[in-house]
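pasting for ref
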Amino acid sequence: MRGALLGIAAALALAACGPKPAEHQDAPPPAPQAGEPVDAAALDGHVVAVSETWRFEAAPDTGYALDLAGHTPATTAPYAAPRAVDGEAQFKSGGIDITLSAAPCSMDGRTYPLTARLRVQNTDAPQGCAVAVWDRDLRALLPAIDACLGQATEPMSVTYAARLADGGALVRLRQDGNPFECRVPAGGGGAPTLEGADEAPAIAGDGLAVFVRAPGDNPGGDCYQAPEVRDANGQLLGWWDDPDGC
């Protein structure tokens, strides 16, 4: 671990590029206002932070993983829930130190709700962007997901879902690599609309988790066994597919 962290620190000292400017604005939910306190408890789950030179992922079941350009393997550490520090959320474990603040951050055409600062071995990295991955809200969003899948004529996987400010829901789906977008009206005020999403604005977090609804076969096929998702009674809801494939 120490050797990997020292290598990361050296690379960070040389890194100079930051996130790319945005090409599109994010779809709802809206980002918090800059300077607002970050709810650290709400980030206790699956979180991803990215920059031009590094990628960080935290999840309670897998721990921390930090990838730095040009360095393999990834540096890992046990999961530690984020702490509230001066209005920010700090992920800190095993020499990895990531701080998230409520300041919109743009990269690769996506506007993220949080700005991320990485510090390893007392070395600051280029600023990154962060988002809480949508998978933590799967069960609450399942009625909207099912409504959207009910509009499809072929099986689709879910790459993103979120509740909208008006009480409706937005669901992104894929079928044979083609993107689709579905909007579910609030309060049952009409049927969901499903249409191709080739020209839709990019959304931070879209594709970071991929859900395949049961019934059906495990989407891992001959490559791997995709993790099952079950409800409180043990009923199979579906699977988390690998976003990167086999």
